[in-house]
Design goal:
By secondary structure, the chain is mainly α. It is 86% helix and 0% strand. The longest helix is centred in the first third of the chain and has 33 residues.
Length: 114
């Protein structure tokens, strides 16, 4: 029998198999991974605005602008969709990001190594 698995069902499975503590540890791990990814993207946006685009804004303006751009679309999608749709969308986005990562990393390494 095939079982359809996603990030939401993974946490539920861990909770059922190993108790509620495992589900909370899973949730903290997912939260930490999301925060790490978000902060990496936010800092990359700030550095791009500061260096590559040569925009000279105050630091708080850059932080506010880049973090607003990063969080608003995510907030609106999470607010207006149900958890099952978000879980499937998260799986799709993880696959897409793994394919797109070399296109971001290679130019970054090239620009910073000179």
């Amino acid at each position: 029998d095939l079982v359809e698995a996603d990030i939401y069902k993974g946490g539920v499975f861990l909770g059922c198999q190993f108790g509620s503590a495992a589900m909370y540890i899973w949730a903290l791990g997912v939260l930490a991974a999301g925060q790490s990814s978000t902060m990496t993207g936010t800092y990359a946006g700030q550095f791009a605005m500061e260096g590559f685009l040569n925009l000279q804004w105050k630091k708080w303006q850059r932080v506010l602008f880049t973090r607003t751009i990063a969080i608003l679309p995510t907030f609106f999608i999470a607010f207006y969709e149900n958890i099952q749709d978000l879980s499937g969308m998260n799986d799709l986005l993880n696959c897409l990001m793994s394919l797109m990562l070399p296109f971001a990393v290679i130019p970054t390494i090239t620009f910073t190594s000179n």
